[in-house]
Specification:
CATH superfamily of the largest domain: 2-enoyl-CoA Hydratase, Chain A, domain 1
Helix content: 40-55%
Strand content: 15-25%
Radius of gyration: 19 Å
Structural class: alpha/beta
CATH architecture of the largest domain: Alpha-Beta Complex
Strand order of the largest sheet: 1-2-3-5-7-10
Number of helices: 11
Shape: globular
Largest sheet: 6 strands, mixed
Number of strands: 10
Length: 261
């Protein structure tokens, strides 16, 4: 169904692969539309508990926007502006997902590709990958991805330095910056992704949805308001049918049979 991405469902995990290896998996307007469609489709699929985002090949996860297509000279200024705004819609869709998103970073994540990686809930990277925001080298600045990167880095000044210089960092340094959860030898990447996704797949889909939403909503709140909001969310959580099942399974020393309600 898609021209620029491929999708697969296995063991309740939907994998979305950026499939423009010959173009370094850059994001064209077509890919943007297809990603938006795929995220919505699998987020609403009851057979799917977890999503994985990765890139084709083993060199580049995603090198950001395809400038030749998204900023072509034949497009009007307004068309280019609207096309770039679609990138913000992609980040909004990811933030609003009902299901956890795992980033399988199989190659370099640059520019918008770094933003996509950072937007994932859990990021697992091969140890030979590099990360960076090279936009400054072509007279641009990584405006849209700043909002995502800043919310997940532990060192804002180092992040600003990367943006100002266009410097790339290793996967290990990206982990130190707080942008990556795991740095794994390439040959063990798939095993680690499977381990994490299958752990998540054993949890209640309903509570994953509530908890993920609460995390992102609470993150930007003032502290006292966040506590009040979280108290309300806990009350909602306790009303879910899966809580009754989870507690019963724990007391009966068996695996819970989640209803997703």
């Amino acid at each position: 169904m898609y021209q620029t991405i491929t999708t697969e469902i296995k063991d309740r995990v939907a994998t979305i692969t950026l499939s423009r290896e010959e173009r370094r998996n850059t994001i064209s307007p077509t890919m943007m539309a297809e990603l938006l469609d795929a995220f919505k489709k699998y987020d609403d699929d009851p057979s799917v508990v977890t999503l994985v985002l990765t890139g084709a090949g083993n060199k580049v996860f995603c090198a950001g926007a395809d400038f030749a297509e998204s900023m072509g000279t034949t497009a009007s200024f307004l068309d280019r502006y609207e096309g770039q705004r679609n990138f913000t819609e992609l980040f909004k869709i990811i933030r609003g997902l009902k299901k956890p998103l795992v980033g399988r970073i199989n190659g370099h994540a640059l520019g918008g590709g770094l933003g996509l990686a950072a937007a994932c809930d859990i990021v697992i990277a091969a140890d030979d990958c590099h990360f960076g925001t090279p936009e400054i080298n072509v007279g641009l600045f990584p405006y849209i991805i700043m909002a995502t990167l800043l919310r997940f880095t532990s060192t804002p000044k180092r992040l600003l330095e990367l943006m100002l210089t266009g410097e790339r960092v290793t996967a290990s340094e990206a982990q130190e910056l707080g942008l990556v959860n795991y740095v794994i030898p390439r040959e063990q990447l798939d095993a680690k992704v499977d381990e994490i996704t299958q752990k998540i797949a054993t949890k209640s889909p309903a509570i994953l949805r509530l908890g993920r939403r609460a995390f992102y909503t609470m993150r930007d709140m003032e502290y006292d308001k966040a506590l009040e909001y979280l108290a309300s969310m806990l009350a909602v959580n306790t009303m879910a049918e899966d809580v009754t099942e989870g507690i019963a399974a724990f007391l009966e020393k068996r695996q819970p049979q989640w209803k997703g309600k």
